[in-house]
Protein 1
Amino acid sequence: MGRTGILQGAATGRATRPVWSLARLALVALIPAVAMFSVATPTFAAARTVRVGLYENEPKAFSAESDGEPAGIFVDLLKEIAVQEDWQLVWVPGTWEEGLQGLRKGRIDLMPDVAYSTERDASFDFHTTPVVDSWSYVYAAPGVRVDRISQLIGKRVAVLRDSIQETVLTQMVAGFRYDIEIVPADSLQEAFRMAAEGEVDAAVANHLFGDYFYLQEGLSKTPIVFNAVPLFYAAANGENHDLLQAIDRHLDAWIAEPGSVYYRTLDRYTTKDKPGGIPSWALWTLGIGAALLGITSALVALLRWQVAIKTRYLKTANEALASAEEMLRLATDAAQEGIFDWNPKTGEMTWTPNSFAMFGFEPDEFPINFETWSALLHPDDRERVIAVELERLDTGDHSFQIEYRMKTKAGDWLWVASRGKAVTLDREGNAERVVGTNMDINSRKSAEEEVLRLNAELEARVAERTDRLAVANKDLESFSYSVSHDLRAPLRAISGFSQILARRHRADLNEEGTHYLDNIVQASERMGMLIEDLLTYSRLGRQAVRSEPVSLGDLVALLATDLASRIEETGGSLTIPSDLPTIDGDSTLLTQILTNLLDNALTYRRPHVEPEVSLGWYEEEGDVVLTVADNGIGIPADYQDKVFNVFQRLHSDDEYPGTGIGLANVKKCVDMLSGAVWLESAEGTGTTFFVRLPKERP
Amino acid sequence: MRGTPHILLVEDNRMDVELTIDAFREAGMGNTLHVAGDGDEALDYLFGRGPYADRTEYPRPDLVLLDLKLPRVDGFEVLRQVKSTPGLKRLPVIVLTSSKEEGDRALSYDIGANSYLVKPISFDGFLGVVKQIGGYWLSLNIAPPEERQ
């Protein structure tokens, strides 16, 4: 009905100039008084007195606040019928209960606003055409939000005592076994007051009453509707049939006619913007319509503007969201990452499609949770991942970073890296929600494994090569050893017999024979020296290096004794410092080094210059550097780096006897002691050898 | 020391044998030198077996000069058997070899060599060694008592 009114109003208002609107509104203000007066006008030609029960159930029936005159849908309609039927209406005020009781006892003839029920049908008679259909709403108290019946559980709901709603609600609560406390109220006003004042959480009322009052009482209308019932005037069983028939007759006629008094009456009681009713619905509608048009236009513009803003905002927000989502998706795609969201306490887990795709599954192909996830773990990784790594979620920085293998849909194993962090902790500090990423690291792992494999292969090859070299070296050393060793026997024979010959049979030889014999003796002596040096050289590589404290002072003193005769022979001198240190080393190797260097210093002297050899030492960065300096012939710069090679000689044997192995032996010994040897020399003025040795060996 | 000292030279190299004999002669020590050409022969001599059963012709030596590198049974095996045999184990055995090897030296002393000498290459050197052996082992050194069997 309301809809029709607004349409009419709008249509009229559109044709009306705005200036007139205010005038019409002023006119509207006069109308109620006129209407009241006309209704209150008594009809003196009444033949029939009809006693009507009147209880307070605005807007269906009530006493007007202004003058106590009865009003309401049922009252107004009945008044209209009474005028036409020439009835004299007598209002009998009382409660709802008293009204029904009065009907039974015959104290009243009609009771308005009675819902039909089979139970009531037994006690009362009803006419046929319902006056109105009524349904009930739940209206919530201020600050209470109720959207469904279940949300009423544990709450107090006020309902009209002995009303149909009480019965229906009680049955409903019993049927659903809801624990809802039903608080009976003596009137709907009382029920709404209780809700408005917070005595109850909600109140139930028919829509006619409820819609009429809820805003005024500060309540909110919930979507809970129930108990649609037709409402009638009721008469006592078997009484006043003529009244009921007359009512039906008028209702049928009015309902069939749009704009009839019936509709106008209903309209009047649909909303309570103003107290009391407005009898001239058309003017009222017109005025409201005019005002509404202005307001509506403004509102529409405002709403459009707001909608536009809202739309734009939503669009931007949606675009931002979509682009953020897209970016996240692209980023996770690009990074080949899937995202997971996991509750360690319940095992619930969510995977993005990427996470599924990583293992060859369709999104949500299987329900993912901790159990299904751990079932896919490689058996060799399961214990480590679950027992060790995930433990960290409940401690430390509540995060983990794990690498493990998982079974793909195809049944292969895929290396995955998962990083996660607990974003929610419970009171005990244990992870409640963990969010993180899964990443396919198969190629990296394969590469790592390949690198490891290649490394291992390389190491194996190097080891093999080293072994072969060591074997070859050993072979070479034992070869050179056994060769030089085996050469000694024949050499001893040559040298021995040539000496015997020279000693016992020299007289039997001529001069030429004696010369040759001397050559043989000399050559065999030289060969003996060569073999001795070679043997030393090969032996050096085969013996273990000892590490023991060696007093260089004692060692040099021994050498000096051995060299004493040679020094004396040459008329030279050997200077030895008195503070030579003790170092960790191998006395055999150290003897070799110093013997060779001192021997060389005495050997390579300048002709007619007495050799002056001095031994010295200094400390450098924890190492000991020994120096052997001479005033000999010196070594040409071109050969300084070659003198340590085996068989490298700079002079003929006739100039200076030697084997070319001495300095090679020195170098080898120094190497074995993890030291270094070098020299400084100027041709014709002398040479200084430097031997650097660690003071302490590990 | 009963009369002329008997020396058993265990040496496979004929020229070394000749040089040794010559050196001993030149050193003039007046001893008797018996020669065994390999390890087997040396053991036969020492144990008085086979051709060496006659102890009057081949008497138990007072000193053994033992080369290490020998065909068939080497010097170490000869030394090992001598030093583990009652009646022979007190017999002074001098290793006379070309080897200066640490391993050879260690093993020789471990299994009971009484001395370890390296053969010098020159005859003069060799002569010196022989003279010193005689001076030390045959006169200065007090021989072990014979074991009671």
Note: Chain A touches chain B at residues 481, 485, 488-493, 495-497, 499-500, 524-525, 528, 531-532, 535, 539, 543 (CB under 8 Å).
Protein 2
Amino acid sequence: MIDAIHTIPPAVALWVAAIVALLGRRVGLTAGLAACGVATWWALTVPAGTSGSWTFLEFVVVPVAVDPAARVAGLAFAAFGTVALGYLAATGGDRRHLSLALAYAGAAIWAVFAGDWLGLLIGWELMALASTLLVWLHGGNAVRVGFRYALVHAIGGALLAAGVAMHVAVQGVSPEALHVGDGISSGLPALAVGLGVGINAAIIGVHVWLPDTYASPHVGVSVVLSAYTTKLAVYAAYRAFPEGNLILAYVGGVMAVFGASYALAQKDARRLLAYHIQAQVGYILAGIGIGSALGTAGAFAHLFNNVLFKGLLFMIAGLIVLRAGTGKLDTGGRLGRTTPIAAGAFLVAAASITAVPGTNGFVSKGMILDAALEGGHTPLRWLLLFGAVGTIISFCKFGYYASRRGDSRLLADANPTQAATMLPVAVACLALGLWYAPFFELLPASGDWSTDPYSQRHILEKVALFGVGATAFVLGRPILERLDGGIDVDTVRDPLVFYGTRGLADGVGAVFATVAAADRGIRRRVFAVVLNPVEAIARLLPESTAAGYRERSSEVAGTIGIGPNRRYRYLAVACCLAIALLVGVGLR
Amino acid sequence: MSLTVGLMLAVVALPVLGALAVWVDDRDRSWSIAAGVLSLTAVLTALLGALMILEGPVTYRQPVPGLAFRSDTLSVTIGMLDIVLTLGILAYTKTAGPHGERFYVAYLLFTTAVFGIVLSGDLVGIFLFVLLLIWATGRLVECSEKAGVDSAARGYRRTATLGALIYLAGVGVAAWLGGSSNAETLAIVLAATGYTDPLVVTAFVLMSVGLALLVALIPLHGWLVETHARATDPVSALISGVLPAAAVYAFLRVLFDVFTIDFLSANPAITNGIIYGAIVSLLVGNVLAYAQRDIKGMLAYSTISQFGLVVAGLLVATETAVFGSVIQLFGHGIVKGAFCIVAGIIAIRFDARTIDEFGGLANRAPLVAAAFAGLAIAMIGLPPTVGFVGKWYIAVGALEQGLWVVAAFVVISTLLTLGYMIPFIDRVYFGTFDGTDHGPDTVTRAMVLAVVLAAILSLAIGLASVTFESLLREAIEQLVAPPLE
């Protein structure tokens, strides 16, 4: 029985719940929580290996392929699904929100457990579709942002698909050509897949969709979105480059610095957090790019932890937006004595993301930094450390602004249901930081690496980082005060794309206009007769018969006129026969 | 006489008995009788299919000339298409009509005729069933209230009978050479005579041109456009979905069973001629579909272009391409049939026939609009629908043979189809409603259910295409294998 269930992809449970959710909010929430619960149990207990296969065209699609990497990512997605759904419902999401969120999370889980690129691509595109609809549900400005989001992900998906297709072309078509195996062939396929994945992972230059989108929709939707799209992209990066890729590692390192720096300049809570997603994804990409056993394990540990603490931070940001009516940290109300739950959760989450000893972020970031040290990638390690300082400064800033600045009114705390979704995450952040051993068992290649998170070096390093970070915050606060948003690549890119596209459109338009002008001349004489012979004939007929002819012709669909003529038909048959006989017999 | 032979005779005979019952019946139970008979036929067809899969093809010959039956998974596929469509259309005709004895007698005989063509193992037998099919179709076309329908039906009968007679002339030449009109016997004789013999070639040309007319390849397509426009929507569904498919099936049998693949390689001029003719049909059909404002006209020309593709796939004559053609034949039948029914539903509820009247229907009839969009996607051939799968296999098969022209036109036809389908979908979803709405009660649930099921079916067949391939593989391997010495 249980073996049989283990052959069914857990995404199916979420998709069923997504359909159930259309019936009503309460029943949808129940079904969704149950589905996420089942998926979590499934991810924990399913034995490693593949099961099931389904052939489409010439390719074998494997719906269930379990290895440690898939298990960790799937577990994070499924388990976080329960709290994200709960939070979405507790902040006023209706049945459409719940249904789409379930479809979206289901697609992510499907993609994680798919054993081949075609399966992954299906999940990838479904996610793009469901998340766009989720953003659109909020209406207003979110619709505009959603369009850009959809466009970006359509391009990303197309690049990924093109890369996979080229990979198959390089490998030669065979039923197993799409299986994940040893990663994507190097050269052009790797470049296309890397770019496609990079767009979803928000690498620098193509990342602007991230802060734009995640700051716009319903607060519960932000929480849901924060967990899946970028994390699945990182997961796909691992599938594409399982042996690591140094370019990827350095892209990740730069992202860590870039994301943290831009986060420093933000005053909108959700925008700030969105830039931190970029920074944390940078850490994970760095771990995957290093490619050693410790690097990969650290990357997946950080992926799991990041889903937790980033989700929690988005929950708190959402709470601020709900209570204060704005996400602006410098104008809304304050967290403080009246908000013990929110403030407590914030402290835990901020400690986790800044890697305070005792939290899960400390353990997994340490692993990635160690992997960089072990592999001798000193510049990468410095980039990551630099990013860590930036993270510390920006969360000093978040805490400071949320509790000391802006409107002096104190905000109301989380209500019990909201608290019920936030506290488990906070507890998990602390628990994984202290009792990490069982978690290490789940990580990829668990026998091939070892680490001691609480070694003296790690602790000292952290103390130094916090010293630098805190000093920098205190000294640099007047500068931070003046920054609001900063200038990102979109200020250059968007006008470039806009005017570029408009120029292109104008050019195409001019060509078309010329063609159309020529066409009008020809059409008036030739096309008019060919396309509407009835009218041409009717014009030639005397007034009295023309009306009757028009009426009769209007009852015949073939406006081509010659179609219904019987005599023409016999002529055509005769011609066909003559030509065919000539070709077949006569020319011999 | 084995069980299989009994089933073969039963599926041909049952609808005839049903037609008799409808004719005798005087208490207005035509629909119920037709529904009962067709359901039973469907069950028997499914049984026959199961037996084919388990036991392989069966041939049954009688000493009477002209009577021979043969069956394999391919013939059952086309039989299935016929029965699925006739059953599905019943859901529409129950309330929307046409009603009455005349219609249902012809309807049931139509089914018989298709089964006869599909199961007949004798070229003269095929001719007789084609005649029955032409008669029944003419009758069905006449069951319309549009002006000029009688002359359209008469014109159709004359043209199609001409095609059938040309085909018969070809059969006559072949039979004169071979002393028999049985497909198996003829194949042996023709191989012995030599495939480049002028008389053999003449026989092939006559049969092909006759059948091409019945498939409605350009420039022999006029009858299809005309009858399509004049007939009622359920009859159009049969005309588009089943009629050319039956003719293509007959062509397939003549081509591969009687003349065999060696004939094609012995006469490259003819092979290429048909391929390029089919491509012209594909291209011109698509372009003319652009010129249509009326949805039925668009559907008619789209049928013509689709059958150009199917015939081109057959002539590529590799296992892959022939499978592509067969699944395209089946998928197109379902999709186009359902499309005609959707057009009928929209006409009943909104009085909308042309693209200009289709604006904003999605808000008022979301399910019908969704089925419309789904069927359009299948028709365009986007993955993973059946339309994509058929085109994929045809293109891959063509590339295997180095016929990149065919593969290129598969892509071009997809783009062209996209071009004339998108305006309709655009109107349905993004146009503003400006017309009459007779209310949702004018359309029964069964009608909507039938088209939604067809849309789902088109997706399911696409996803399960590999299963289909494994079922049809044996039959197609035999088909394209060179004849035994």
Note: Chain A touches chain B at residues 55-57, 531, 552, 555-560, 562-566, 568-570, 572-573, 575-577, 580-581, 583-585, 587-588 (CB under 8 Å).
